[in-house]
Amino acid sequence: MAPSPTLLVIGHDASPETVRVQSGTLGSWARERGITVIPAVAGTELPDPSTVDAVAVLGSVQGAWDDSVPWLASEIAYLERAMAADVPVLGICFGGQLLARVLGGSANPADGRHENGFRSITTFCDAIDEGPWMEFHFDSFTAPPTAEVLARSERCDQAFRLGHHLGVQFHPEITPAEFEIWAARWTGSPLEDRFDELGITTAGLRAEVAERAESSRVRSWRLFDDFGARAGLLPTTAEARA
């Protein structure tokens, strides 16, 4: 029997156990599809990218444009090694911004184009529903010039594909458990002080994440199935079983 495909999931400023929770519906999708998830943390020793079948980079409170972040240079170098080894990369939020930067696009402060909460997006492919999708970002990306832009909002690019690499600005992986990690981090912080300005509340977001949990799972699995097929994690004829 052939070994199961492996997906390295990189989180930030967290433990590997927390990264598993933060992988959300990406993790549950991988388990259902027979893919082994390897949780890892940026800034620690990572496996040789040629020994895994794909890499996913999750969100972060840091900026993918900010070269003063201590672990950012090593993560950029790691993604470059993955691409040199032809290993597909999935980038989510910060991960999408970093992927865009590494592939020749850019990551930038959003400068008023931030989005927080569930927002509808316009899509140009079958793999991504029109939405709404969970957004929580104060930075954004410009897709690489040779990439196919798959989705946009009124404020910024939302998804792009270049070869078998995929970057998204929104959070398809969101679950109630992941949300509680977010909420614990911002409670009592300067970010929470901005919630009136942003038009959101922790209680309101928590309720909407819970209400949309199953529909978010189904739509995210469809997106991950498309990535997985293109990345060689799944047979190209695989049908979504969500």
The biggest sheet amounts to:
8 strands, mixed
Number of domains: 1
Write down the Rg: 17 Å
Which residues form runs of ≥5 with pLDDT under 50?
237-242
**CATH topology value:** Rossmann fold
CATH-level-4 superfamily name: Class I glutamine amidotransferase (GATase) domain
Count, helices: 9
Quantity of strands, as a count: 12
Roughly what is the average pLDDT, rounded to an integer? 93
Amino- and carboxy-terminal Cα gap = 25 Å
- Sketch the topology as an H/E string, one letter per element: EHHEEHEHEEEEEEEEHHHHH
Please identify the top-level CATH class.
Alpha Beta
Residue share in β-strands: 15-25%
Q: What structural class results from the helix and strand content?
A: alpha/beta
Shape: globular
Arrangement of strands in the largest sheet: 2-1-3-4-12-11-10-7
Give me the CATH architecture, please.
3-Layer(aba) Sandwich
Helix % is 25-40%
